[in-house]
Sequence to fold (151 residues):
Amino acid sequence: MTFLDARSATGLPDPHHQPEFYDGIVVKRGLAWVVDVLLITFATFLLGIVTLSLAWFLWPIASLAVGALYRVTTLANRSATWGMRLMGVELRDHHGRRFDGPTALLHVIGYYASISFLLPALGSVAAMLVTDRRQGLTDLVMGTAAINRPS
Fold:
C-alpha cells in the first residue's frame, strides 16, 4: 500500500490503519536530531575558520544561524534534514504534502521556540511519546507529522 492509499481526512496516514508510517519514528527522529546537531556543529566550526575565528567568539549566535539556515533549506528542499534522510524520515504538512519554504520556516521557528525553554522541550518529547502520530508540540500546532519515508 502506498502513502496515497493510506491518507486519512487530514491528508496524513492514519496511525490506526497504517501504523508502519509511524513505527519507530520517535527513535529515528532522536537519532536524526543527533546527526543534525553534529553536522551543524561541524559547519559552525568551519564558519569559524572562514571568518578567521569570529564565529568562534560568537558561537551561540553563529550556531543558531547555521542551524536555522541548515534546517530551513533542507526541509524546504526535500522535507527532511540530512539526519532525517539518513534515518528514512520525512515531515509532511496537514495535507500530507512535503514541506515548502514557508512551512519549513514556520516549523523551524516553532522548533526553536519549543527548545528555548525546558518545559516546552520536555512537553514536545512527551507529546511524541503519547500522540498517535508521534507529533511534537510544533507538529501539533501546525498539523504536521514525521513519517517513515514512503517507498
In short: The CA atoms of residues 110 and 138 lie 5 Å apart. The chain has one domain: 23-148.
